[in-house]
């Protein structure tokens, strides 16, 4: 099996390595800068208050980094992939949660000890000051957002409702910035600290506004996306064909996804991440979705000509990240959509093996297209059906090795439900497939 040696692939991997080094250096620089700012500000009036101020600085820094994650910067997306960034977003969110609880707690304890009054009395007294009150409201909103994001609560919310709750993040940011303007002290030590601190926040807010508002507005104004056709693929699954102007200028690749809105048909806050289910051809786009949430279930009712607002493309689940000359594509359920697009991607050269995991053959969406594409590309397609049981592991190490004996010498792309993806990744680790050859996207981003 040969390693991919095309100049384009080598250049891309080199650019990714440079981007990763730059990102790590950026984070390290800011961690050091915040520590130096804290030292320059000097000790506080008591230890508890000093700890509170220390935690507040890092709370603000982590919030700025969270904004950069939410901004979905293309350089970060290409370097790490949206699936990994989603995990980091969750970790960063939990860090904000604990810091948002600890920072005011230590500050209030410090004032309580300094003034020799109770913690409750100190809280009530300081809450009468508007800057402190704004910070307290921000903490309450953070608790609400994180509380509704834990797995038990998340299961009870539709994706649309969960996404709407996360819009409170922007309110938290506004309150946090106002709180810093009035209450910040460590970054007001001198002109250098002020320029650095507000420069960081200006960069984070600017990236957010550009990435989530300005660029999408420009692209949608240029391309004017419209629904061209709605095709029923199965009882609960439809494909939406979308056309527009100058789609050849849209930097989309097979395997990527967009955040889709359908103005006039759904509310502006209703958005879903659906993967492209066909390789972009410069003339049209296609998404295929299963009716789970209110937005996806209503796609079959979209009228022809309906306006479409797309944000993206996002994701590093593309052929640009491959490292070997042959590939295995593994899809499960509706997570097969980016797999089907990759199978059509002309940039994905070399021998291909496709593994499609479904409970029953009747559930195999787009199976006819997969068979036609596999035949045209001389690829091997295996449809793995049946319920997983102790004696039957369709994607276990032994089964994968039997289906693809040279799997350790191939790139492996995996997309499907979380449980399936986790099981496949575990099998690949046990087979000692090098991590650089494994590319995964969880079902939550596949749409």
Automatic annotation (TrEMBL):
<keyword id="KW-0560">Oxidoreductase</keyword>
<protein>
    <submittedName>
        <fullName>Predicted ferric reductase</fullName>
    </submittedName>
</protein>
<keyword id="KW-0479">Metal-binding</keyword>
<feature type="transmembrane region" description="Helical">
    <location>
        <begin position="194"/>
        <end position="215"/>
    </location>
</feature>
<dbReference type="GO" id="GO:0050660">
    <property type="term" value="F:flavin adenine dinucleotide binding"/>
</dbReference>
<dbReference type="InterPro" id="IPR001433">
    <property type="entry name" value="OxRdtase_FAD/NAD-bd"/>
</dbReference>
<feature type="transmembrane region" description="Helical">
    <location>
        <begin position="21"/>
        <end position="41"/>
    </location>
</feature>
<dbReference type="InterPro" id="IPR017938">
    <property type="entry name" value="Riboflavin_synthase-like_b-brl"/>
</dbReference>
<feature type="transmembrane region" description="Helical">
    <location>
        <begin position="162"/>
        <end position="182"/>
    </location>
</feature>
<feature type="domain" description="FAD-binding FR-type">
    <location>
        <begin position="220"/>
        <end position="320"/>
    </location>
</feature>
<dbReference type="GO" id="GO:0016020">
    <property type="term" value="C:membrane"/>
</dbReference>
<dbReference type="GO" id="GO:0046872">
    <property type="term" value="F:metal ion binding"/>
</dbReference>
<feature type="transmembrane region" description="Helical">
    <location>
        <begin position="47"/>
        <end position="70"/>
    </location>
</feature>
<dbReference type="InterPro" id="IPR017927">
    <property type="entry name" value="FAD-bd_FR_type"/>
</dbReference>
<keyword id="KW-0001">2Fe-2S</keyword>
<feature type="transmembrane region" description="Helical">
    <location>
        <begin position="91"/>
        <end position="112"/>
    </location>
</feature>
<keyword id="KW-0472">Membrane</keyword>
<feature type="transmembrane region" description="Helical">
    <location>
        <begin position="132"/>
        <end position="150"/>
    </location>
</feature>
<dbReference type="Pfam" id="PF01794">
    <property type="entry name" value="Ferric_reduct"/>
</dbReference>
<keyword id="KW-0411">Iron-sulfur</keyword>
<dbReference type="GO" id="GO:0016491">
    <property type="term" value="F:oxidoreductase activity"/>
</dbReference>
<keyword id="KW-0408">Iron</keyword>
<keyword id="KW-0274">FAD</keyword>
<dbReference type="InterPro" id="IPR039261">
    <property type="entry name" value="FNR_nucleotide-bd"/>
</dbReference>
<keyword id="KW-1133">Transmembrane helix</keyword>
<dbReference type="InterPro" id="IPR050415">
    <property type="entry name" value="MRET"/>
</dbReference>
<keyword id="KW-0812">Transmembrane</keyword>
<dbReference type="InterPro" id="IPR013130">
    <property type="entry name" value="Fe3_Rdtase_TM_dom"/>
</dbReference>
<dbReference type="Pfam" id="PF00175">
    <property type="entry name" value="NAD_binding_1"/>
</dbReference>
<dbReference type="GO" id="GO:0051537">
    <property type="term" value="F:2 iron, 2 sulfur cluster binding"/>
</dbReference>
<keyword id="KW-0285">Flavoprotein</keyword>
């Amino acid at each position: 099996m040969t390693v991919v040696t095309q100049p384009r692939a080598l250049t891309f991997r080199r650019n990714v390595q440079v981007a990763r080094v730059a990102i790590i250096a950026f984070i390290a620089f800011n961690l050091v800068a915040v520590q130096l700012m804290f030292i320059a500000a000097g000790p506080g009036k008591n230890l508890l208050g000093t700890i509170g101020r220390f935690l507040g600085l890092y709370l603000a820094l982590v919030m700025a980094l969270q904004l950069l994650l939410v901004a979905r910067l293309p350089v970060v997306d290409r370097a790490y992939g949206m699936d990994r960034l989603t995990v980091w977003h969750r970790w960063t969110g939990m860090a904000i949660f604990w810091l948002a609880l600890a920072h005011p707690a230590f500050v209030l304890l410090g004032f309580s000890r300094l003034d020799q009054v109770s913690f409750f009395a100190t809280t009530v007294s300081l809450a009468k000051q508007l800057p402190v009150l704004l910070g307290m409201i921000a903490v309450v909103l953070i608790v609400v957002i994180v509380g509704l994001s834990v797995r038990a609560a998340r299961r009870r919310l539709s994706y649309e409702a969960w996404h709407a709750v996360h819009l409170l993040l922007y309110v938290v940011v506004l309150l946090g910035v106002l709180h810093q303007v009035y209450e910040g002290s460590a970054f007001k030590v001198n002109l250098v600290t002020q320029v650095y601190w507000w420069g960081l926040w200006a960069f984070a807010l600017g990236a957010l506004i550009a990435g989530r508002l300005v660029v999408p507005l420009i692209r949608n104004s240029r391309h004017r996306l419209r629904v061209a056709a709605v095709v029923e693929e199965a009882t609960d699954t439809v494909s939406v064909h979308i056309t527009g102007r100058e789609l050849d200028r849209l930097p989309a690749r097979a395997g990527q996804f967009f955040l889709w809105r359908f103005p006039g048909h759904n509310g502006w806050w209703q958005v879903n991440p659906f993967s492209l289910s066909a390789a972009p051809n410069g003339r049209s786009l296609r998404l295929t979705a299963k009716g789970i949430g209110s937005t996806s279930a209503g796609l079959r009712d979209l009228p022809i000509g309906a306006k479409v607002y797309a944000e993206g493309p996002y994701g590093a689940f593309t052929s640009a990240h491959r490292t070997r000359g042959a590939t295995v594509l593994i899809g499960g359920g509706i997570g097969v959509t980016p797999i089907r697009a990759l199978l059509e991607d002309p940039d994905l050269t070399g021998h291909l093996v496709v593994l499609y995991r479904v409970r029953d053959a009747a559930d195999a969406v787009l199976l006819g297209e997969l068979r036609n594409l596999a035949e045209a590309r001389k690829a091997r397609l295996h449809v793995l059906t049946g319920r997983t049981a102790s004696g039957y592991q369709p994607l276990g190490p032994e089964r994968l090795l039997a289906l693809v004996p040279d799997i350790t010498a191939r790139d492996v792309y995996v997309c499907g439900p979380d449980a399936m993806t986790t099981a496949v990744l575990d099998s690949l680790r046990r087979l000692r497939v090098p991590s650089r050859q494994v590319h995964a996207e969880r079902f939550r981003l596949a749409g």
